[in-house]
Automatic annotation (TrEMBL):
Belongs to the peptidase C40 family. It holds the Pfam family NLPC_P60. This is C40 family peptidase. Transmembrane segments: none annotated. It comes from the Bacteria. Keywords: Hydrolase, Protease, Thiol protease.
Length: 188
């Protein structure tokens, strides 16, 4: 370490055009900058990728049996959304519901959860608290919709395809609300 507590490049480490004595100015990273960098480097959970994918398809027409950019049915949209997040789902709504042993109650819904209605005849995905994204029926398009009383009455159950990602996201949210770490000094 140099006299000022800085790491200096030795002539062998310095590039031919660099004078090692000019590397005495530290680069200071604030706690807020460190926090921002950590957040940018945090892995994005599968459920978040799935929600982003499904939301990006809003306006795409409903196509019975569809699972492509030209059109989606309800389960085809969920299939492709989670596929983008690295999680394989079965093809139909009933199979998607049956693929997970743990069921989620209405009061415990979180973004990314798959919600099932009408005797497992329809599936959507929680996009944010109180809303779902889905491909409703022939003649309609992929859209985000508020979870209404009518939806609550026809609710069969829900599953969480990415429980580890939900826990990870909760930890990341805690870290975001925590104070920034102390300022560090780094040298280049």
């Amino acid at each position: 370490m140099g006299a000022a507590g800085l790491l200096l490049a030795t002539p062998a480490q310095a590039s031919p055009k660099e004078d090692p004595t000019t590397l005495t100015d530290p680069t200071t990273l604030t706690g807020a900058e460190i926090k921002r960098i950590r957040e940018q480097q945090a892995p994005k959970p599968a459920w978040k990728i799935a929600v982003d994918f499904a939301m990006s398809k809003r306006g795409t027409p409903y196509v019975w049996g569809g699972a492509s950019p030209s059109g989606y049915d309800c389960s085809g949209l969920m299939l492709r959304a989670y596929e983008h997040g690295g999680i394989e789902l079965p093809r139909t709504a009933a199979e998607q519901y049956g693929a997970f042993s743990k069921k989620i109650a209405w009061k415990d819904l979180k973004p990314g959860d798959l919600v099932f209605f009408h005797g497992l005849g329809h599936v959507g995905m929680i996009s944010r608290p109180g809303y779902m994204v889905h491909s409703p029926h022939t003649g309609d398009v992929v859209k985000e919709e508020r979870l209404s009383d009518w939806r609550r009455e026809s609710f069969v159950g829900a599953v969480r395809p990415d429980p580890k990602g939900v826990r990870l996201w909760a930890r990341l949210k805690e870290q975001r609300s925590a104070p920034a770490p102390a300022t560090f000094k780094a040298t280049l």
